[in-house]
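JOB MANIFEST
job_type = single_chain_structure
chain_count = 1
residues = 255
[input]
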Amino acid sequence: MSNWLKRVGQLRPLAAVLLGAMALSACARPETSSGIYDPNERFNRKVHAVNKGIDRALLRPTSQVYGFVLPKPVRNGVENFSSNLNMPRIVVNDFLQLNVEDGVHNTFRFLINSTMGIGGLFNPARDFGLDERSSDFGETLYVWGVGEGPYHEMLFLGPGTRRQMVGIYVDIFLNPISYVLPAEYVWVPTGAAVASIIGDRYRYSGTVDAILYESADSYAQARLLYLENRRFELSGRGEDEEPEYYDPYEDLYGE
């Protein structure tokens, strides 16, 4: 009973943020953002420098060791497992957006991969045509009409906006998996997510290195790529279209 009460207590910050987001959406209009609104650029550049230092000293070398030591099938299994643990959060966001089709689609994907895929280590749902249809609470806020807000560089997480910062915070509490796992296993989703991030850093090392270490202004380049891709994802343009830019931070957000 005490563990259950603790879990309920964990929902209080989420409830507060949800109420605040709904209050914002009640008086907001859906927008299509354009241009760059970065009033805190000086501070953001300092955070970017810290993130770049963390990547150079820790994430980049760790990812190289990770990719060298673990064979590709093992890395794919880690990515599948992390993606599957994240799927209930995506389903919740689908239904919060009243997107029933994607909610049902992703629910069946989760059920198939959790059973036939041995807890998500494998991805048999793909063979049934059930590819992941990703979503997050930042997108939910967009659907509710909450504006993008100013650009922010987030410590450890990279580029984002004020709306996305709120979305990331809510998504931490929004995954039902966090409330059904036994207390001794609550670290598993976080551990799997970290391993997946390291794997993504290895997989996309060429792209990330080009942005961070080869561009004339890595901050401006990362900011542009993030905003272009995020706005494209939220714009609702054709599913078959490909974004003009690749966002190396996409998997960090689960977007």
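[summary]
The first strand starts at residue 151 and ends at 154.
The chain has eleven helices and two strands.
exit_status = 0
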